[in-house]
Amino acid sequence: MIETAVLQAFPARKFHQEKIAGGINNAITGGGLSRIIFEDDSIPRTVVAKVVPSFSTEQRVLAEILSNVGHAGLVNILRRYPDNRLGEREIGGYNFLNQAKVDFMPHLYFGQIGQGDEASELLIEDLSNCQTLDRLDNKDLLTQVLEQVIEKLAAFHQQFSPKSTQLLQEPWVGKWWLSPTSDFLSTEVADYSLSACAEFIEDPEIMAILSSLVRVRPALWELYNSQSNTLIHWDMNPGNIMVSPKADFKVIDWQLAGWGVPQWDLAQLMTPFLGMFSVSEINEFINLYCQSRPSLDTNNFTSLYHLVVADHSFRSSITVILNGDPEGSEWKKCLDWVKVHKLSIGASLDQLGST
């Protein structure tokens, strides 16, 4: 199928393929990446082919993996959710954001939406000369690139925040946060996550905070939707940020982009770096984001950020659920952040519980 897509996009050009290793999402969904190398001197010389499996294929692969590690209960919950149309969403997102000239968007050369059980296929700008942000081991360089990412992310959020009427009509924009029954926000998924990881939570105060967060999810949904929302990437982890040898960057994997609070992107970006950066250093990055959007109330923004990190523990628990080991995980770093900011989070939860 990839061969057909390449020939449609680049007729008569000879090429060969090289497989590229993917991350945890490819392992779960059965997706794949290949580097297409053309055998002539025309531009582009290379592209990356991405295969996005159909929803039914993704569900089948995920169900088998979860069942094999003793989590058939989570499989039964996830089976009740509708088709997320990730291939269609990613192609739509790339097309829209390329047209909007977002400078950290890779170029999409070709996109074909799969029908039925067919996978969707994308041909994207080759970024194999880049390394992911989490691979930068020089802290000074990492700081420099992170500051650039945060400033551009703030500008991106600012650009699209006033455009809700237009964006919420776009079929590729996820409305995950507009419905309390979404699998990203549902009480069922959060409760299962907490129960599955409870044995690894030694601090009773942390357990109480996360238990409260499950109980007040309807009020949390209302809180999210009362904020100044914008277009968010919703998977802004450092592994999706590709840094070039010149220290500029591009962001990949836009299939989950949706309408939501910008704290999600910032939390997903910064939480994995807890340990490499201290809590006070990460707070400085958060302040930089707020300074880049002067209209924000820094105190309110930061309070909700802490709450979002606690909420992110439910989604980031998937690696702990699959591996049975929290050490070094993003989930564990979420809990470390919650421990430091438990007074702020507790106050927010008290307010939500009284509404």
Write the layout of secondary structure elements.
Blueprint: H1 2-9, E1 15-20, H2 24-29, E2 32-38, E3 46-52, H3 55-68, H4 72-78, H5 86-99, E4 108-112, E5 120-125, E6 131-132, H6 139-160, H7 164-167, H8 187-197, H9 204-215, H10 217-226, E7 230-232, E8 241-243, E9 249-251, E10 258-260, H11 263-270, H12 279-292, H13 298-316, H14 318-323, H15 330-340, H16 342-353
Antiparallel strand pairs: 1-2, 2-3, 3-5, 4-5, 6-8, 7-10, 8-9
Helix pairs in contact: 3-4, 6-12, 8-9, 8-13, 9-16, 11-13, 13-15, 13-16
List keywords for this structure.
single chain; 355 residues; alpha+beta; Phosphorylase Kinase, domain 1; Aminoglycoside 3'-phosphotransferase, Chain: A, domain 2; 2 domains; five-stranded antiparallel sheet; three-stranded antiparallel sheet; 50% helix
